[in-house]
Amino acid sequence: MEDDLKKLLQKNLEYNKEILKRVEKLEKHILWQRIFAILKLVIILVPIVIAIIYALPFFKSTLQSYQQIMQGLQGLTGNTTSSEILNNLLTK
Questions:
Q1: CA end-to-end span of the chain, whole Å?
Q2: Number of domains into which the chain is organized
Q3: 0.70 surpassed by pTM
């Protein structure tokens, strides 16, 4: 009976060692997955942030030019809206 118990314990120990090896491999795999997920996020977000930083001055100057044009058109036509101005331009 004791021999059977020792054999069972020995098998159990071997199985546990094998399970431990597999768990360690899985942990390494999960670690690399997390690293690449963060890297992928950085690769996507960094160009977007840089584009926003460089594009803001361009959009500000474009908006100022648009506002100047609209103020000039309103000065020429009185107190009309932009849709009325466009309608006047298209009918002429």
A1: 108
A2: 1
A3: no
